[in-house]
Structure formats: C-alpha cells, structure tokens
Specification:
Helices cover 56% and strands 18% of the residues. The chain is an alpha+beta fold and 397 residues long. The protein folds into 2 domains: 179 residues, no CATH class; 173 residues, no CATH class. The strands form 2 sheets. A 6-stranded mixed barrel has the order 5-6-11-8-10-9. A hairpin with a 2-residue loop joins strand 2 and strand 3.
Length: 397
C-alpha cells in the first residue's frame, strides 16, 4: 500500500472519531500554547531589562569607590570615597581607546525655582555626560569644558524637574537655586524613564562637577567615573588599563575602587529574567508531556479497537509496515495539528496579556519552530509504542 493511501486511511480513521481526536489534540494545544506564552513573557521581561541597561550608555565602563576599612569598622561599596578628579584626568590622558569620560558627584538637595521647591538628585558631571550616557538634549545645550574650569553656576535639568517646578513654562534661560546658590538653566534632557533599579532617571539636576564640589557639596572626592570605550571590542582592554592605572596611582595600597563594565551589569540584571524564563518554560513543558501521554493512550485504544480492521487489511494484501505507518501518521497528525493551533493560541494569548496587563512580551521565532517540531516528535514517540505493541504477539491473539 502506498504512502498516500496509508495517509488517506489515517485521515479517515481520525475523522470517524472527530470529538475524540479533538480532545486528544487539545492536550497538545494547551501544552504548546503554555510554552509559547510563558517564554514570550519571560523574553519580554528580559528584553525590557536589557533595554534599560542599554539606556545607561553604549560600551560603558563605570569606576566606583570601593570598600572602606578603619580598624574594626568596615564600610560597603562606595564608602571609601577614594576617587578624585585627578584620577579621572589621569585616565583621560593615559588610557587609550576611550571615546568619552565623565566624573560624577552624586547628591540630593532641595531646589527652589519659579516660586516652587522640589527635592531631587543634584549631580555634578562632566560635559561628556550626555554622550557617555546616550542621553540627548530635548532643549538647549549641555555646559562646556570652560564652564567646568571656571566653576560656572550653570545647570541642565531632567524632564521631571522641569514638569514639577516650571509647569508649562520653558525652563531654558531661567534660574533655579541649590542651597541658595543661583544656577542658570542651559538645557533640558530628553525623557529617559525609570532605571533598572526603579528610580526616576529624569528627576535630576546636572551641574559641572567642579561647581558641585567647590560650591555645593564642599567635598574633595567624586562618587564615580563613567567611561565610554570606542567600541565593544575595546571594553575589556580599557577596563584592564584603568584598573592598572588606578592601582599604580595608589602605590600598592588596598584596592579602594571597583571597575564594572556594561556587559557585567547586563549579565547580572538579566540573570533573574533568564531564570524565570527557564522556570516558566519547564512548567509549561510538563503540559507537552501530558499531551503526549494523552495521544499515546488514544493510540493504544485504537490498536485494541481496530484489531479486526487490521487483520482484514493484512488479509487483503497490506504489509505490516503499512499498518505501523498508519498509526504513526495518526499520532503525528494529532500532535502536529495541536502544535500549530497551540502556537496560534500562544501568540494570541501573549498579545492579549500584553494589552490587558501592560506586560512586555516578545514572541520568540525560534521557540515557535521548537514547539512545532517538539509536538511532532511527541507524536512520533507517542505513536511508536502502540506500533511496537501491535508487532508483539499479544495484540494479534
């Protein structure tokens, strides 16, 4: 019997028990739909975290103050405050492969402007800060190197600050006060949203770091140094060079700084999302196994119910291989049909969750092919055992 005839007989056998076939395929539909939906949610969360990490800047390297220790008293990361403007100047002058650099002094203060006050982040940075952070200006311009050298009383503000203290007015050219010192607003940063840590990036006032250190905070150290490498390939080279230079400048003293790359931050930030995606996919994969067991059960029932039909077919000239192929085809058709429908249901369900709950979802093309191929494989495995059962003497007795 040719393959086409075997396929036609298999389709006819499935159509004779339409409801049973649909219920059998339903297990596979639910399993594949669950896998697609869960993986889409997990990938969406991972993509969102990666986008937030990317918003920190391109090819970014961050040098932070390290741990402090005084006798038996020890402080956490950032407590040593050992970085200085001279460290930033040395890195800029002596390390090659750098495309931008900005020292940073972080603080929080009350500001006053337009008859309103607001408590916000007041950070001292360098002129390269918007470039290093990949943060363009929405209006006006960034302060210059000359402003840094002259300790100019100028600033740039984020959108949240502009909305809170200037309402619907244009803030460029106006004045805000930090610790009763007037700073002229040169520009407004474009909206950036929330960081991966949940803080509002736009709630910030940027001053020249020299003005911040000499006029506002009265400190001699800086919080961190942000560095942009020229290309992704140079990130590790620049990182090692920065570590060597800062170690040499400290003449062998205990390391009081930490150097982190954007890649390391992205790996740490997305690890949870990856774990969640794997967990959700594993749980949903159980549904595929359950669906395969259902198909195997139905095929076992079919073998038992159709013993007389099989005997007649063999008597009129069909080969045993044709009968075995028929069972395999039926199992593969049930599982593949369930897989295709399950993919459609999973994609639709993912979009529905995104629209209803606002969750970010990303339907992975690779997982669509994996689900369809996996469902077909489940069909082969599920139909193979009944075929072997048929070849043993017991079904024929």
């Amino acid at each position: 019997m040719r393959f086409t005839n075997t396929l036609r007989v298999a389709l006819r056998a499935l159509s004779r028990n339409t409801m049973r076939s649909m219920l059998t395929a339903l297990g596979m539909i639910i399993g594949v739909a669950a896998v697609i939906t869960m993986v889409s949610i997990g990938n969406g969360a991972k993509a969102q975290v990666e986008a937030q990490v990317a918003s920190l800047g391109q090819n970014l390297i961050t040098v932070m103050s390290g741990y402090s220790s005084s006798g038996s008293t020890r402080g956490g990361s950032g407590s040593s405050m050992s970085l200085t403007p001279e460290d930033a100047e040395a890195i800029s002058a002596e390390v090659s492969g750098i495309d931008g650099l900005s020292p940073e002094v972080r603080d929080r203060n009350q500001i006053l402007a337009n008859g309103l006050n607001w408590n916000t982040n007041v950070n001292g940075v360098g002129p390269d800060y918007p470039y290093v952070r990949n943060w363009p200006m929405a209006a006006g311009a960034m302060f210059t190197d000359q402003d840094v050298k002259s300790l100019a009383k100028v600033c740039v503000i984020g959108k949240t600050v502009a909305d809170q203290v200037f309402l619907n007015e244009d803030p460029v050219g106006q004045t805000l006060r930090v610790r009763n010192l007037p700073f002229r607003i040169l520009g407004v940063l474009s909206p950036k949203g929330f960081s991966i840590f949940g803080s509002d990036e736009d709630d910030v006032v940027l001053l020249p770091y020299t003005s911040h250190m000499k006029r506002v905070s009265r400190r001699t150290s800086i919080s961190m140094i942000r560095i942009q490498a020229e290309s992704p390939e140079k990130i590790q080279t620049v990182k090692l060079a920065v570590e060597d230079l800062l170690t040499q400048r400290r003449r062998g003293r205990d390391t009081e700084f930490t150097v982190r790359t954007q890649e390391e931050l992205a790996t740490a930030a997305t690890q949870t999302a990856k774990t969640m995606t794997g967990l959700l996919a594993g749980i949903a994969g159980v549904s595929l196994i359950v669906g395969g067991i259902g198909i195997m059960n139905i095929m076992l029932v079919s073998v038992t119910e159709r013993t007389r039909e099989i005997g007649i077919r063999l008597a009129i000239g069909a080969h045993g291989a044709d009968v075995l192929t028929q069972f395999l085809i039926e199992a593969i058709l049930l599982s593949s049909l369930g897989g295709v429908i399950g993919v459609a249901v999973g994609v639709a369900g993912s979009q529905a969750l995104s629209n209803y709950n606002g969750w970010p979802v990303l339907v992975p093309t690779m997982w669509i092919f994996i689900s369809v191929a996996g469902s077909a494989l489940v069909g082969i495995v599920s139909g193979f055992y009944p075929c072997l059962l048929y070849t043993s003497p017991s079904p024929r007795d």
